Amino acid sequence: MFFSHVVDQTLKKIKSQTANLLTLTNMSLGGFAILAATQGQLNLSVVLIFVAALADRFDGMAARKLNIESELGKQLDSMSDVISFGVAPALLLYQGILHSFGFPGLFFTVFYMSCGAFRLARFNVTESNGYFTGLPITAAGCLATLAYLFNPLIPSHLYLFIMIALSFLMIASFKFKKM
Amino acid sequence: MFFSHVVDQTLKKIKSQTANLLTLTNMSLGGFAILAATQGQLNLSVVLIFVAALADRFDGMAARKLNIESELGKQLDSMSDVISFGVAPALLLYQGILHSFGFPGLFFTVFYMSCGAFRLARFNVTESNGYFTGLPITAAGCLATLAYLFNPLIPSHLYLFIMIALSFLMIASFKFKKM
């Protein structure tokens, strides 16, 4: 009796924490992606950002499926997004390409991070109504990382334009339906 | 008449955005601190983190004094804190000292970032009652940065311990009165 109660409680706890554990995984992947970019291991950083995007996709799905969506989970998710899709891709592009532009490269890297953070802050205080306002930071981060992969094909100065465009798209007020 | 109305509206707008502008300044300083650490300019990174801490102190004060505290402001503040006092000091210590420890250095740098993000997420869903729960990330970030300054005096392996201690202090559940 006691044993089945303990098992039951443990299973409940695991279930309620599954989404948050996935979010923490996503966050850690973002942290490792930042350190990889710092150490010049840019391809590893790319892989880590994409895996973080997969984890991000799964934690939302898990939370909805297990019916364990929580306010703490939402906040944790935003924190993890600013690390994995705000700071990490910005640092990847700065280390890989933008550092060669001097101050403009520096400025627009920080501008991208700030716009991403603003986008998330606004998202957190907006009631969910089935619509996104502005480009989600996950999409912006993945697009920036994807753009980095086409590095040999895209002229360097275009990356400045890509960073500026993604930054403005995140803070823009256009709406589109969530998928 | 029209002119005075426009001036009045503009002043109101400036007033309502003062705190958020200070928060964005804090966030940008954190972003620049990250890029400085990445480029090996560690002393510049230290200065930027401390100036961000000053900006962080002022934006809260400005919001309270001007009576313009808002939910968006609170969220923006947390986003800025995770960048300036979560990622930036962690990267500073990793670049300056912890990278020489291999995987443990890597792991506890990411652990510090994740604990800081968790601390902020928990703070955002907790009603303010005049008490802090766990060490605030601003204090942890400043202590880590201060510890870096004593680099020649403190044995390197102690920094691993400092990172672990600060991480656990942030997610701990002890309470103490806000100053």
Automatic annotation (TrEMBL), chains A, B:
Is the keyword Ligase in the record?
no
What Pfam families does UniProt report for this protein, alphabetically?
A: CDP-OH_P_transf
Name the reaction it catalyses.
a CDP-1,2-diacyl-sn-glycerol + L-serine = a 1,2-diacyl-sn-glycero-3-phospho-L-serine + CMP + H(+)
Q: Which residue ranges run through the membrane?
A: 101-118, 130-150, 156-174
Topological category with respect to the lipid bilayer:
Multi-pass membrane protein
Q: Which GO terms describe its biological process?
A: phospholipid biosynthetic process
Q: What is its main location?
A: membrane
Top class in the EC scheme: transferase
Record InterPro entries: CDP-alcohol_PTase-I, CDP-diaglyc--ser_O-PTrfase, CDP-OH_P_trans, CDP-OH_PTrfase_TM_dom, CDP_ALCOHOL_P_TRANSF_CS
Record key words, sorted:
Lipid biosynthesis, Lipid metabolism, Membrane, Phospholipid biosynthesis, Phospholipid metabolism, Transferase, Transmembrane, Transmembrane helix
Its annotated compartments are: Endomembrane system
Look up the EC number in the record and give it.
2.7.8.8
Q: Known PROSITE patterns for this protein?
A: CDP_ALCOHOL_P_TRANSF
Cellular component GO terms held in the UniProt record: endomembrane system; membrane
Q: Tell me the GO molecular function terms.
A: CDP-diacylglycerol-serine O-phosphatidyltransferase activity
State the NCBIfam families in the record: pssA
PANTHER family the UniProt entry points to:
CDP-DIACYLGLYCEROL--GLYCEROL-3-PHOSPHATE 3-PHOSPHATIDYLTRANSFERASE-RELATED (PTHR14269), CDP-DIACYLGLYCEROL--SERINE O-PHOSPHATIDYLTRANSFERASE (PTHR14269:SF61)
What family is this?
Answer: Belongs to the CDP-alcohol phosphatidyltransferase class-I family.
What is the recorded name of this protein?
CDP-diacylglycerol--serine O-phosphatidyltransferase
Organism of origin is Falsibacillus pallidus
Q: What does the organism's lineage look like at the top?
A: Bacteria, Bacillati, Bacillota, Bacilli, Bacillales
